[in-house]
Amino acid sequence: MPTPSQGQGPCMYNASGVSCYWFLGLRIRLMFYLGIDVAKSKRCCLLDVASGKRTTKVVANSCAGLTDLLGWLDKRHAEPTRVHVALEGTGVYHELAASGLHDAGLAVSVVNPAQVRAFATGMGVRTKNDIVDSHVLERFVIHAQPMRWSPPAPEARILQALTARREALAQDLQRERNRHEKARNYCANRAGPAFDSRGNRVSGAPFS
User: What is the pTM for the complete model shown?
Assistant: First the structure.
């Protein structure tokens, strides 16, 4: 596709479509909009390449997947400062993507899932799958222009990680206590008077 020079046409083009346009002699750079549906193991991404076309990519929900995603955007001439991405705040799965993309220079919006579902209903979308969800998020970020998200300070991130780890360990400990209690009750019921309520052998009791 030809590239019109300043004053010869309204648009400039690149391999991914319209990149900018001229207005009163000024070069106006267009934004790219990215919707990401985040799951435990993967991210489904849909990019509006500023020409009305859309392209998709699925990457792992990991640091390696984040590198793949940034490389994919670079191949489509989507400079980080011209990309606005939306993803839902769902549990902890979105945190790596949100922090990594923000650190890479993208405008990140972590949006409320209920607002996105209401927006999808307004669009008449009833199907729900990864591609559809990422498309709805891409439309949402274009029309709603949600507030940009900023990650907590590094110290707060460390505290959050330590708190989450402590909660996980506490849950593991409680599960082990429950298993131990269940085993002791089983022994007490199975052996009868040879064991006390704690599952300990009663002194002088015969073996079962």
Answer: 0.65
